[in-house]
Design brief:
By secondary structure, this protein is an alpha+beta fold. The chain is built from eleven helices and 17 strands. Helix content is about 30%, strand content about 25%. Strand 14, helix 9 and strand 15 form a beta-alpha-beta unit. Helix 1 crosses helix 4.
Length: about 400
């Protein structure tokens, strides 16, 4: 599977004659943090399949992109990729995102050749019907569709919504044996076919912006540091972790390996301005109004204060969010590791999470990058964030 994902990446993404990203790039590119070259990478990176536990090809792309901006790179046993600046420095600061996208596992193949699935991560069964999919096999990609009974055939019947028990994939076969001849078996991974676009010159749209856009943003921080010839007094570890969607597992592993002194995590959070979202429970957050800074037990108070001060001093717009008990992001994994690591969360507002049309505002992406970049410039070597030392 990994070998085929890499091949897919090379054959269908890098060799495109015309990049939609270049067509859609804002004419005011010189005023944006994200430039045409980095946007071309984002498009390729989002389009490349990177399902949980099969992130390898996306990680290779990410490492190739970040390599010119760091001193060294490494990958752990499960695929978390890390770029390091000043690797010999004793004081270690992490900036982190996660690389995996939600997907499906083949779970049961009927004698008629239809395929039933289970989740790999938090895949939403309600969006599945009529979606085109890629089934990843050792023989290559197999196309399929999530079928659904026509409205005519449901007339007069009690409407039954999509559930994990009734959604199924049709790959044009008429028997289980025919499906298996294509290389499909229980455990084969399934991803959606939807690809990146720019909407109204305002939003980046695509599947798996949660949270490969985070990996993109921390790579852009590394680019800015290099382009602006900034010398940090500490070791910077730019971490693109695996398996967040199944319980923060990649972050749990890599924090034990790096043993950081500070961690700044970036992930997405919900824009709550669209219908059917209750602001009383979900908060009042909006795409286009800046990065979101969180209050939560895992978010270290004084590191968070530093982020607020940096945002205000650099005229970076921001929003506030409160999380009860835990953030549900890799922040929790870093904060409670190694005897406690001062950690904070910078979130990117996103519409339609865990669908294939996730949306983020271009200006928010720029501002998250700027906030992380300027925060790094304000962290001192050996800085002690303990409350009683402030």
């Amino acid at each position: 599977m990994v070998k085929h994902l890499i091949s897919l990446c090379k054959n269908t993404i890098f060799h495109k004659k015309t990049s939609m990203a270049n067509k859609k790039q804002n004419k005011k590119d010189n005023k944006s943090v994200v430039n045409s070259k980095s946007l071309e990478f984002l498009e390729s990176y989002i389009n490349n399949p990177s399902p949980t536990s099969y992130e390898w090809s996306g990680q290779r792309m990410w490492l190739d992109y970040i390599n010119p901006y760091v001193d060294e790179t490494f990958v752990d046993h499960y695929g978390t990729a890390v770029g390091v600046v000043n690797p010999d420095a004793p004081y270690k600061v992490v900036i982190e995102a996660h690389a995996d996208e939600i997907s499906w596992y083949v779970n049961y193949i009927t004698k008629e050749g239809l395929i039933y699935v289970i989740r790999n991560g938090g895949s939403d069964h309600q969006i599945a019907p009529s979606k085109k999919v890629h089934i990843h096999t050792e023989k290559g990609i197999v196309d399929g569709v999530f079928g659904w009974p026509a409205i005519h055939t449901r007339s007069g019947e009690k409407e039954e919504g999509p559930t994990l028990k009734n959604i199924f994939i049709d790959c044009g076969c008429t028997s289980k044996e025919e499906v298996e001849e294509l290389g499909i078996h229980v455990g084969s991974v399934v991803t959606y076919q939807d690809e990146f676009m720019v909407l109204n010159d305002r939003y980046y749209v695509g599947r798996a912006l949660d949270n490969r856009v985070g990996g993109f943003m921390i790579a852009e921080v590394a680019r800015l540091l290099k382009d602006n010839k900034k010398k940090l007094p500490f070791g910077l570890y730019i971490v693109n972790a695996v398996q967040e969607e199944v319980g923060l597992r990649g972050a749990e592993m890599i924090t034990e390996k790096i043993k950081p002194n500070v961690a700044i995590v970036t992930d997405v959070t919900h824009d709550t301005q669209t219908p059917m979202i209750n602001k009383i429970t979900q908060g009042d957050l909006s795409c286009g109004k800046g990065p979101v800074l969180s209050y939560a037990p895992a978010v270290q108070i004084n590191l968070n204060k530093l982020l607020f001060e940096v945002a205000k001093n650099n005229d970076i717009p921001f929003q506030r969010q409160a999380s009860s008990r835990f953030t549900g992001t890799d922040t929790d994994a870093f904060a409670y590791s190694n005897g406690g690591v001062p950690s904070a969360l910078i979130s990117l507002p996103l519409r339609y999470m865990h669908t294939t049309v996730e949306m983020v505002h271009k200006e928010d992406v720029d501002n998250v990058i700027l906030l992380i970049y300027n925060a790094l410039l304000n962290i001192k070597d050996g800085q002690d964030f303990r409350t009683f030392n402030q």
